[in-house]
Amino acid sequence: MNKSHSFLAACVGLVIALGAGFGAANLRSAEATSAPAAFARPDFAAPPPKPPGVDLTLFSALADPSALKKLSRDVEICHDALSAASVTFTEVPAKREGQCGYSEALEISSSLATWEPNPGAPKDLPMTCALAAKLHLWERHVVIPAAEKYLGSPVQEVKVFGTFQCRNVADTDKLSEHAFAKAIDVAGFVLADGREITVLGDYRSSGAEGDFLREIRQRACDLFDVTLGPDYNTAHENHFHLDVGGQHACR
Question: Any residues with CB less than 8 A from the CB of 108 and at least 6 apart, and which?
């Protein structure tokens, strides 16, 4: 195998993680129906469609963190990995605001759940492909199984405060990773049965909703460079901050 093929093999390892999970298949929950019915796990044994030139037989990137790092440096391969996982997205034009901006970003059109701006939040959600890939891993392998485990209903929507915003980290003169579309603030989730779970209202609860939120925040630390939530400070009382900026924190 030549050098380029070796690089492709290492990078595209994410595809298996996007399609196979932490060693378990069939994690996608059923769509809600208008008639009441018992929650049942659907069959997701069928492999996702294969884009041209993408090898879906390669090892899982979750077993090799270096594969995720390599993938983040090759946008074309990252796009192929998302497509192989049946994530639809649109590339967005480069943007510059002073020292802020991005040259290669996308917006997710559809995934296992819909990613929706929270009321009052910006409608556009541009993000780097590296952030989109890790969000899909988190959604598929952490959020969906935890919702099934604790709440008995699939997640239908993920509510987001925003992604790109030209601003500093609070109380510092350092630019936030939001300034480069490398961060997202997750406010809550809407389940298929109509329940809404919010970080602000449910994170500290002693019930299933709190257990769900605390588990997905803790396990986000295994994927994202920085994960911040209500345990960090009051500025994060109502959301999870997740980013791929290269620093490391889990608070």
Answer: 87, 88, 89, 115, 125, 127, 132, 135
